[in-house]
Amino acid sequence: MIDLVQMRKEFIHGNLDGLKDIYRLYKDDVINVIKSKTYATNIDAEEYFSQSLLVFYENLLEDKRNEIKSVKNYLIGICLNTLKTDICCKSKFKQKADDVRVLLYEYQQYDSTSEYRNELKRICRDSMRQLDQRCKKIICSYYLDKMSMRDIATNLSLSSSDVAKTLKSRCFKKLINLTKKIQSGRITN
Amino acid sequence: MEELPTEKINLIHKYLGPGLSDHEDIHFKSYLTESSFREELLFRTEVLEAVSENRLDDASQVIKEARLEYKDNLNDKAPNKSAVKFLVGGIVVFFILAAGIHFLMNRNTKLRSSQIFAENYQPYPPQQSTRGASLDTNADFDEAMRYYVAEDYEKASESLKNISINSDNIKLYQGISYLEQDNFEAAEIGFKSLMYSESKSLAEQGEWYLSLLYYKHKMPLKGDSVITKIAKDPTHIFYNRAQKILSDN
Prior knowledge:
The complex is a heterodimer of chains A (189) and B (249).
Chain A: H1 4-12, H2 17-37, H3 42-61, H4 71-85, H5 93-105, H6 114-130, H7 133-144, H8 149-155, H9 161-188
Helix pairs in contact in A: 2-3, 2-4, 3-4, 6-9, 7-9, 8-9
Chain B: H1 6-16, H2 22-31, H3 35-76, H4 81-120, H5 135-149, H6 153-162, H7 168-180, H8 184-193, H9 200-216, H10 220-231, H11 239-248
Helix pairs in contact in B: 1-2, 1-3, 4-9, 5-6, 6-7, 7-8, 7-9, 8-9, 9-10, 10-11
């Protein structure tokens, strides 16, 4: 029996070994079910299974444990759903980013190209590397996993939610400043 | 990028984080008229999007490793050389067959998508100057329409960008221009934004072109899901055509 509470804790702290365990445990079963219920080839079924693990990972981080009665059935459900809607796995935040783009489209400000976004992705990886572990966890927990300040404080052993709030603002400001700095540095170079 | 006051930055943070209250939402929308606010919002959104994608990439990497380890384990458990040879032979045959079937199925799906697009797509008809707009706007719009009629969609797109008012009508022409230039992402966002249009007719045009966009870009399942939605609404202007697409395919 997989302990989802413990696994979620490990994910929050950056240990993703649980994904490997789940891969080993359920790969064959899930792929067999997908192949028997659809026309997916072995290669496709394997791809869908890998994608379902990513969705599982993000949903567990968002603490949607109640939805997961059985990990195997949950993964099968995601695979079948993905097959039905033909939507490749995008990060959860992508939806929010698309909402912002729709909102700004009104003002003709849809300018960023995919090259720009790829470059920004590289820059952000560099700037995230320069942040300490606690900062990284706070930014991800608050903005990506929509965790409450109280939960963040508990998970990161902070004394109160106010401390978490102050740290969150400080960390995000640091990330933004670092990103702008690296970005302007690359432009000048 | 100019520095925004803390109040505005906090609003952006709340919008990107847990969400805004009704009261805050009113403020947020009023600030959207300021270009510095929009710039900061877009930048912070894209930074978080990048962070989110990077995190997902890391998880993908772990899954890839698990895949490799799994395969290695299978290899270690292989009983003897002849059995391995037999297995490898079987796998090769299987992959060739699977790839062939996959290729054929893929080809059929692509053909079907292209066919639906070719049979149903026509650019939205051009029109005269926008009613009630200023003279400058009319001149820009007329210029855009000239390029649009001449099928110079890149220039049409540029001229449409210069128009200060971004009406739903303009959004539709802009979407078509992007679609013609194969700028899939921008066209998709443009058509989706028409769903909020007050004009039912424009919202329905947006939906129709969105489905065709998916067919053009070989995403038939997404195209089908929009078409199915249209085919369920008898008041939709493309109801009959959507029904036909579904019955023919």
